[in-house]
Design goal:
about 190 residues; mainly alpha; ATP12-like fold; 9 helices; about 65% helix; mitochondrion; ATP12_ortho_dom_sf; ATP12_ATP_synth-F1-assembly; ATP synthase mitochondrial F1 complex assembly factor 2
C-alpha cells in the first residue's frame, strides 16, 4: 500500500529539523496561522459565496470553539478576526501534547491548507482529507463552478494538495502513535 504520493516532502523536512526550531517555536509558528486562517476570513459579496462560506465553514468554526472551549469568530475585515489571547494559549497547550516531529508534520499540513482550524479538524478525525482540502479551496472551487477552468490544471493541483495533506496527516498520526506505544517486557 505504501504512503501517498507527496510523503517524501514531509519526510524530507522532518529528520534533520533543518530550521533547528524547538517545540515552543514550532507551536508558536502553528498558532500564528490563526491570524490568517482561511476559514476566519469571509467575503461580503457575492451573496452566493457569502452563503457558501457560512454553510461550509461555520460548522467547523463552531466545532473548534466547542471542542477546545474557546472563542475564535470570523470577520470580513482585511485584518481578520481578533483572536483572544486565551484561545491562543488553549490551542498552544493542546499542540504541546504532540512530539516535536508531529509538530513539524502539523505545521506542514497547516501550510498546505492555510488553516490551523481545518488541520485540527483533520487530526481530530472530524474531517477527511478530501473535505479539508475542499474547504480550504472553497473560493477557488466556487469560481470554477461559476466560470469554468482549465480542467487538467485544476485536477492536478487538487490531487497534489490532497496527496501532500494526506501525507502530512499520516505523518502526524504515525509520530503520535509511536510516542504513545509503551513496550512492556514479559515478566519472568
Amino acid at each position: 500500500m505504501g504512503l501517498p504520493a507527496g510523503h517524501h516532502q514531509v519526510l524530507h523536512h522532518a529528520p534533520d529539523n533543518p530550521t533547528q526550531r524547538n517545540k515552543d517555536q514550532l507551536i508558536r509558528a502553528a498558532v500564528k496561522f490563526l491570524d490568517t486562517d482561511t476559514i476566519c476570513y469571509r467575503v461580503e459579496e457575492p451573496e452566493t459565496l457569502v452563503e457558501l462560506q457560512k454553510n461550509e465553514w461555520d460548522p467547523i468554526l463552531e466545532w473548534a470553539e466547542r471542542r477546545f472551549g474557546v472563542e475564535i469568530g470570523s470577520s470580513t475585515s482585511i485584518l481578520g478576526p481578533s483572536i483572544p489571547a486565551r484561545t491562543r494559549e488553549v490551542l498552544a497547550s493542546h499542540l504541546a501534547s504532540y512530539s516535536t516531529w508531529a509538530l513539524q508534520g502539523i505545521e506542514f499540513v497547516v501550510a498546505q491548507l492555510k488553516s490551523m482550524l481545518l488541520t485540527l479538524g483533520l487530526l481530530d478525525l472530524r474531517l477527511t482529507v478530501e473535505q479539508a482540502v475542499l474547504l480550504s479551496r472553497l473560493e477557488e472551487e466556487y469560481q470554477i463552478q461559476k466560470w469554468g477552468n482549465v480542467e487538467w490544471a485544476h485536477d492536478y493541483e487538487l490531487q497534489e494538495l490532497r496527496a501532500r495533506t494526506a501525507a502530512g496527516t499520516l505523518f502526524v498520526h504515525l509520530c503520535s502513535e509511536s510516542t504513545g506505544v509503551k513496550h512492556k517486557l514479559p515478566q519472568e
